[in-house]
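Please go through this protein, sequence plus structure tokens, and consider how the sequence yields the tokens. Keep your notes short.
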Amino acid sequence: MNGPIIDTQTQQGLNRFLVRVYSYMAAALAVSAIVAGVVATRWGSGVNEYLGAHPVIYFGLLALQFGMVFALSFNPRRSPVVSVSCLFIFAALEGLFFSSLLTVYAATNVTMAFVAAAVMFGTLAFLGTTTSKNLAGWGRQAFAALIAMVIISLVNLFLHSSIIVIILSLVGVVVFGVLSAWDAQRIKQIYYQFGDEVAQTSGIITSAALQLYLDFLNLFLELLNIFTLFNNNRD
């Protein structure tokens, strides 16, 4: 047989672990959406214009975000209060930065991208969790493609090519789709590796939730680019 043979108690423990991980992820997405909605409704693009005019504050907030990502990723067994606080502060800052999406992009495109991202992420995460096939090879290839995408994106800052943007967005959907499935599988393997007592700690749960949050967010952004470019070309 492929995959581990697990008893009922282990399966129940895994289910509890996954429920907590995905609950934290969903809560973080809700925080980002609420913050983005409040900021966009109350101040429009004013906050992002302010940050653009004050680069020290902007890069300071970015540095704070990176610090929280490293804190959650490389020390998952810290205090539960610190772990949960880092996750939701990070989500709130993401909502602040992405509030401009609600003022720049059409509401229809944002809604379509969110629904499509939710369906794709949910399907791929389910497949990643339930499949007996090892996705590590695909995941490593997707991560290598992600690095290549970052490099090409930096080059395109000087080229300003819309074709490159379209290609990168299409490739990005595939890359983050594969990463979503791979991360879902790795999270299940975390439980098998550490067991119920360790895996139920808030630090490991919030670290896993953050990874899924980033997968979903990037998938959403790539789809938003695609829907916007498609609708603009159609109009």
The mean pLDDT is 88. The chain has one domain: 8-234. Residues 7 and 199 are 17 Å apart (CA to CA).
